[in-house]
Write a structure and sequence with these properties.
2 copies of one chain form a homodimer.
Chain A: E1 2-7, H1 10-23, E2 31-36, H2 39-46, E3 52-56, H3 59-66, E4 78-82, E5 88-93, H4 100-111, E6 114-116, H5 120-123, H6 129-135, E7 138-140, H7 146-154, E8 160-164, H8 173-178, E9 180-184, E10 190-194, E11 197-203, E12 206-212, H9 218-232, E13 241-245, H10 252-260, E14 265-268, H11 270-275, H12 285-291, H13 297-305, E15 310-318, E16 321-327
Helix pairs in contact in A: 2-3, 9-10
Chain lengths: 328, 328
């Protein structure tokens, strides 16, 4: 996720700095850029290329600035608004698909503000179908029908939700409170239906790349995978494939852990990584020195996930294990 | 003030009804209209003709709906946002000149929500120069300089504020905390200055029309004037002129009260009212029966204030006295 933080006043800049210092450490934030003073220019530069804009200013300024660019809830970035005293963090635009509501809670925790969320489903403690799609990395096949599902939820009606058995782990009390759940073993998609209107959710492919020190303990690999998934707010079962480099293909700690999750580990030849070029990948001098490649977890994740895949979790080290996750 | 309330869900409609029932009794609200479901159409109909839009829905919906229409903080209506559970009332657009911040507090009190204000001056407990203009009915001569004054306030600098002695009553602790105040007897305008940038505030003309039962007690007239001014959030001295009909020109209760305020009472001939046509005026069957005219307080206020004046306080009866106020 790419985030832009825009401030105007000196107080606002201090809040911007505080958020920057915290988010730069967050593995799910791949790029973060601070802007100060020229709001119109900052919006012009970021609205269509960033995933989230955090505006620290009066609501009128940010609304007037984004007005020429707003297009669709499926493509617009998340826009968050924070007042100059950090009293409130308000989810302004793209609450569900853009993840603004979720980010609002995250930022509020960082700066000690109150989260202000206005989407009806959230206000009524229901799981909007677009929020489920965002949270668990599904594509929405027919977004024009979202409104039927979400309005039914707000009116305390229960749409049916057909869930493939492989995604049984999605079912929790909140989901059961929102939907009439039907388990299903015939296909790979989630289908929400009310009054003959359906929304179909098809899974994005998630690949976790794993690098590790020699003779890594299984418990350390497990810990690393679980921690990364916790930060991504998904269960480890949601990861579709795992990947590592051929040098690590006999590491018992990695092999066993992936096996225990009932998943496959894909092996990428070192040669492939050597010639692989992708701007998303960071460089490790240590790995370069040892193995002549830039890294393991990021390139293997992206190579296995194929063209147009993008990192959602940048390389992060946990006690001898490095983890990266991409989606496509 | 003309207000439109727009809701989408059943819960939202209930909140809309609650606000409607309260505001319809408010003398400063001259027209109020409820809209349900079709937000785009409601915005199209009201954005350029209403003073305030209260949207009960998700922020994304109202922001996407107003985006094509937003133009300038000096002319756009106040836009307020309330979530479906009435947890928060958020001042979204035209916080100062449009009065959105002030209305946000008012609506929050009516429905028991939390007010969310994001304008830097308010957040920092300073009186923005545009907020002073709105509150006390001044026109802003050079709005392009507002930013210099308000940014200085936010940076804890004190702009000078030149106040004519006739407006001494504006000076309170909050104003003194925001500005370096200079009293002045040479002109009729307020002038705020910082770093050679000035904002000039010229007063709108406020005329209060008064009707009353025969032999009305002075205390009752005083009570009526004070109550109306309290609701308008201005001191009685801010009223520039008073008006009544010739039939009442010898009513001691009215004459003495206006004299005590150091103001003039303007007398309007009954004939003038008889032939006066203005859609803003309500009709009183009682007055029509007794004197052959539609009313006293509204037409006399508008006639004395002249062409293009508009009511800011509709006819309201207080124990034998009727009050209306217009601005121009």
């Amino acid at each position: 996720m790419k985030i832009a933080i825009i401030s105007i006043t000196t107080q606002g800049k201090n809040i911007s700095d505080k958020i920057y210092e915290q988010l730069i450490k967050d593995p799910t934030i791949l790029h973060i850029q601070q802007y100060h003073k020229n709001v119109k220019q900052a919006i012009k530069e970021t609205f269509n290329t960033y995933d989230c804009i955090i505006a620290i200013m009066a609501s009128g300024i940010i609304i007037r600035s984004i007005a020429p660019y707003v297009n669709s809830k499926l493509t617009d970035p998340a826009v968050l608004l924070i007042d100059d005293n950090a009293n409130y963090t308000i989810s302004l635009l793209s609450g569900h698909m853009g993840g603004a509501n979720n980010l609002t809670h995250k930022i509020s925790q960082l700066i000690g503000s109150t989260s202000v969320i206005t989407t009806s489903t959230d206000v009524n403690q229901k799981q909007g179908i677009d929020e489920i799609a965002r949270k668990y990395y599904f594509n929405l096949e027919n977004p024009e029908n979202i409104k039927y599902i979400n309005r039914a939820l707000v009116d305390n009606r229960k749409p049916t939700l057909q869930i493939p058995t492989k995604y049984t782990y999605l079912i929790d009390d909140e989901l059961k409170d929102s939907y009439e759940i039907k388990q299903d073993n015939t296909n790979d998609t989630l289908i929400a239906t009310i009054d003959n209107h359906s929304v179909i959710l098809t899974p994005q492919n998630l690949v976790m790349g794993i690098g590790a020190r020699r003779d890594i303990a299984q418990s350390k690999v497990e810990h690393a995978i679980n921690t990364a998934c916790q930060i991504l707010e998904i269960p480890p079962q949601r990861i579709d494939e795992f990947a590592t480099v051929d040098i690590k293909q006999n590491e018992e700690g990695i092999i066993k852990t992936v096996e225990n999750l009932g998943k496959q580990i894909q092996i990428v030849p070192r040669d492939t990584i050597e010639t692989y070029k992708n701007e998303q990948c960071s460089k490790s001098d240590f790995v370069m020195k040892q193995f002549g490649i830039k890294g393991v977890c990021e390139p293997t994740s992206l190579i296995i996930n194929g063209e147009n895949s993008e990192l959602i979790f940048k390389k992060t080290a946990y006690d001898g294990v490095t983890i990266a996750v991409s989606k496509k």
